[in-house]
Amino acid sequence: MGLGITVVGPGHGTTESEGGDVIATCGSARRSLARAFTDRDAGPVLLFVEGSAGLGKTHLLRALADLPETSDVARLWWRCGAEGGLPEEDETWREPTLLLVDDVHRSDGDELRRLRRVLEGLEPGSAAAVTYRPEELPVPGMPLGGSAMTYPFRLTVLRDRLAPWDEERVRRVAAEALGESCTAEAVSALRERTGGVPRAVVDLLAMLREQRPAFTGTAAEVAAAGVPTRLAELVLSRTYALSPAHRPLVWAAAVLDGPAAGDELIAVSGLGARPGSDALLRALESAALAELGEGRYGFAVPLAAAAVRDTVPGPVRQDLHRRAARALGRRQPVAWAAVGEHHRAAGEYRGWLRAVEKAAESAAASGRHQEAITLLERTLATPGIPPQARARLAPLLARNAVTGLRSDQTVEVLEQIVRDADLPPAVRGELRLDLGLMLSNQMGRFEEGWRVLEVAAAELREVRSVLAARAMAALVTPYWPGASLDVHRGWLIKASAAADDSGDDAMRTAVLANHVGLAMSWADPEAWDLVERLPVQSTDRACARQAARGLCNAADSAVWLGFYRRVDGLLTEGRELATRSGAPYTEHSASGTRLLQEFWTGQWLGLAKRCEEFVADTADMPFLSSDAYVVRGLLAVAQGDWGEARSWLSQRGTFGTENLPVPLGATAAGAVIRLTLARQEVADAAEQARAAWTVVAEKGVWPWAAELAPWAVEALARAGDTATAHAMVRDFARGLGEADAPAARAALAWSRAVLAENEALAEGRPDGLLSAAEAYRKAAAVYAELPRPYSQALTTECAGRCALAADAAEARSGEGAEAGEGRARASGEVPAAPARDRATTASAIAELEACARHFTELGAVWDATRARALLRTRQPAKKGRPPGRPSHSDQLSPREAEVAQLASSGLTNREIAATLHLSPRTVEQHIAGAMRKTGALSRRDLAHRI
């Protein structure tokens, strides 16, 4: 074989994108090589660079050829194994020369002898870089042949080894090739599949870039892309260079598809101990396999296993998989999912399904529910699964799906399974039970979930009392719209009897947990005693999970009742118990309860961000974050961001708001009615009030009307439907009876005050307005006790407004104003207070000033602006102020600042006018003045300018 030599002048060479990184790995060798050309006293340098196929040896040589220190040096490329000739004694060698020798492992004996003579004759001012694949050297560790070389005394000999790319380097190359499709998941898969070998990375990226449909960045797409041609040809050439007697060992490595011990490879190959050991040595010598760690063998590039596996004859491949399943079954701990895949590939379907079951059970036991769900879904979707296997695997999927956090994909799988007529009735009933729970608790499809649970209870009543009790217990839960409180009480009686018949402690605890939720919801006097009966110290994980749910149910009900000081202890204990017992759904639902408590108790700092983060964390199950949506919407109402408010209150279209739990739906409806009233759309507000009230009345859990009642009563009263408004208040009072429900008691007082105010305004009775003011103050006092600072400030504002309106009504009467004049609050016309009622006016002003401060402290921009606007209609002018309007030159006036702030929040001119008791034309003028003074280009720009 001849020598391939290329003589190039100074500065010639190509540096590819990988070159800089490759040469960076040989920093010390690079410096020594460069010194050979810059230091006159330095001797020649010989640099050996070893690297497996694809690690970038040629790229390194190109980078070395472009070193700045070699700009005046002749460079000679020697491609071993190529045709050509090399002058042995020539003036070329007597001038400074950089010799670049590529792939020395390809040299035959004659070529090696000639190369050794050249290297032994290197003169000062010259250097050589020699690359080779260590796995392909005839004699390991001897790149220049089997005999020791005589190195000149002044020759510096260095050796460096190229390494695969780390994940960061793979990420940089992938980002350049894939752009936006370069996800962290894809990078990790690329690094794992290629082992970081640069050539394999670049070739696989080229395949992904040309993929159709377009690559989206998933690990599954990387796995399915196939094996690059260069890599496949290399590994197959090495494999089939082995004798037929030795190839089964490489096939075994391809089937195991990962680092394996030598005895495992031999066992899977079926060769026996002595032939297998010999085959392993031959495979390592030929570089068909590599040692990947101490005593662990496999392919240097993991992708290569697929190329080899595809060439193994089918019957042989099945035998290999069969032996692989047995070998992996002896590992500890057993990787059951992998064992199952080998059984399946071997055609052993019973073994496959048993292994899948064990893998899912193992994953569930360690809390890896999503892993178990994915495995079971994939298995059950396979055609031809025997009914008995479906009967074992389907309930396992359902249990994981209900306990963990899962999307509607599992619901679809369960809906398909329960239609399977071959399933035993008990199994189908259990699956239907879990499907009903998922539809109700995790998907928010209450009506559908209720029907499914009723059918499940009937199916299970005769065959499995424990599961029948579980279905009945689910029907005890009162949060869903539709069934009345009496219906839930009926199911409680049935569930308690079934749980007692079952003799199952966990089932008794589950029924007790739901009994707690039911009793707490309507303020049953024995509710707190039921909470104390929850077995929070139980060592049974199933009992502990149910006890945790009971505590969190109690905390949620305590929030709606208004027992905010008790919530912290219940939530803390419930969440800790849920964590210990492995109940992630309960943990997340407790987080939603915490957000509600923080809103009602005025802990608004950072609350909007906490809501948004919770929504993002539970994006695959938006119903779970419905509390966060509503709280975020309530904050937006108070801040005057009404567009955002409607979006959040409607759950941003993630699911129908008619499916919200009753207390949450009533709260959202109350906020929407309030917004509609603020926009002077009274008829629409009244219709919304009637619809929302019907839902609460049908349920019959009257404490849940607390956040709806004041706004619903106001909407109907202002619409002129006073009869229905009175009926609402009457039903609310009767429904509450003597129940210990502080928040509802305060809301009832508020609702009565609303009725009194509207009747007094309609009849023009100042004394009635003063009575309404006192009613509002009583409600504010109850809210202060809870504490609920925002509700307290709202009702205090109402009291101040009524007092001022009473004063104004007396003033109009004393001045002979015509009777039947329009309502003061709706028109915004509030005459100045006469001197005789200054004490009443001063008291009302003090109330309004206090609530304006409270609104501001909370961050309720809209409410604070409204309160200050009302104050300005009645506050006397400050002493010492000169007559006429104050001059603000280029500064915003107080009124302009208020208008600008509301405008930047997204309110229309009409909405701002209603808030500030101004005409839309005046609002328009104020906005124009604010934009002129601030230089704002639009209403949106105004938000940044102010």
UniProtKB/TrEMBL annotation:
Q: Which InterPro entries match?
A: P-loop_NTPase, Sig_transdc_resp-reg_C-effctor, Tscrpt_reg_LuxR_C, WH-like_DNA-bd_sf
Question: From which source organism is this entry?
Answer: Streptomyces badius
Write out the biased-composition intervals (Low complexity): 827-838
Protein name per Swiss-Prot or TrEMBL: Helix-turn-helix transcriptional regulator
Q: What is the lineage of its organism?
A: Bacteria, Bacillati, Actinomycetota, Actinomycetes, Kitasatosporales
> Transmembrane ranges?
none
Segments of this protein annotated with the region Disordered: 814-838, 872-896
Stored Pfam families: GerE
The Basic residues compositionally biased stretches are 872-882
